[in-house]
Amino acid sequence: MPDNLSKLRQALIDRLLEEGAPELVGPMEACGRPVGLICTCCGENKEVKFHCQRRWCPECQPMISAQRIQRWSHAIQKLQWPLFVTLTMPNSTDPESIRHLKNAWRKLRNRKLMREKVRGGVATFEITNKGKGWHPHIHAVMDCRWLSVHVPEPLRTDPSHVVKQKCEWAQRELSSHWAECLGEEEAVVWVQRVKQVDSMAKEVLKYCMKGSELVSSPDPISPLLNVLRGTRMLAGWGSLHPLPSPDEEDQPSVECPNCNATKSFVPEEVAAFITRRQDSSQVGPYRA
Ligand SMILES: [Zn+2]
Ligand SMILES: [Zn+2]
């Protein structure tokens, strides 16, 4: 639905201008315009769309999240014990609360529970607004066999009600750590053993705030976007930091359909510029 996305982008631009934040619009205005590319090996032409790459641009978000998934899912699929964890905090009127969320996350990762039980993983920081203030939260996939220091791991021979009880206790242990890190009385967490790594990876790696939610946000969005501008919204740690490089076959390669050269396409203006320089260097006085 490219039309809807471009309408959404325009609505977002209008809203940011209304809020007096033209610096947050920037190249978003030109997003979606056609750009001519030329193969530097054989001269083949093709047309692509310009993408502004702003994380909050509705037209770029599907591409940005596809790139994230491409970059991270191979690493996630190699985790031995993928565990999907969601950590929430109380809603806030202040978008700066996402910084508080990230500080609490750093504290949690330094606790014995995380240091001893989790090998590593990837976390995304997300913020939504459904009309009751900003709702920052974290989705993480962790490589973790059993996330508890105090509750013994369920045994194969345990009846299902015992397994359920142990899982509940373990979840409570995580939740009390998380509440302490946030400086709250209590905090809501969800823990889930991952069966389908593919769909879970998509859930974790999708964009941090939907363009449609931004446009319809009851609160001003420019303060939030200013916070997001200077902060990473996705971070690997432990065994996933640095991110292990993908296998050869996982790497995408853009080939020229005419001459099969890879990475040979450049924008037409760049090609014209290179040609001019080559021409002038041939007639220049310093050429031997
Ligand atoms: Zn864009
Ligand atoms: Zn070519």
Structure description:
The chain is an alpha+beta fold. Helix content is 40%, strand content 18%. The strands form 2 sheets. A 5-stranded antiparallel β-sheet has the order 6-3-5-4-7, with helices on both faces. Strands 2-1-8 form a 3-stranded antiparallel β-sheet. It has a domain of 164 residues. The protein is globular and about 75 Å long. Helix 2 packs across helix 6. It starts with a helix and ends in a 5-residue tail after the last helix. It contains 9 helices and 8 strands. The chain binds zinc ion (2 copies). One zinc ion binds next to loops.
Quick gist of this model?
By secondary structure, this protein is α+β, with helices and mostly antiparallel strands.
What attributes does this structure have?
binds zinc ion, 288 residues, alpha+beta, single chain, five-stranded antiparallel β-sheet
Quaternary structure state of the chains depicted: single chain
Please count the helical segments: 9
Strand content: 15-25%
What profile does the largest beta sheet have?
A: 5 strands, antiparallel
Distance between the termini: 56 Å
Name the helicity range. Answer: 25-40%
User: Helix- and strand-based class?
Assistant: alpha+beta
Apparent shape:
globular
The average pLDDT value, as a whole number, equals 88
Q: Strand arrangement, largest sheet?
A: 6-3-5-4-7
According to DSSP, the number of beta strands is 8
Query: What is the N-to-C order of secondary-structure elements (H for helix, E for strand)?
Result: HEEHEHHEEHEHHHEEH
Q: What ligands does this structure carry?
A: zinc ion
Radius of gyration: 24 Å
Low-confidence segments, ≥5 residues, pLDDT <50? none
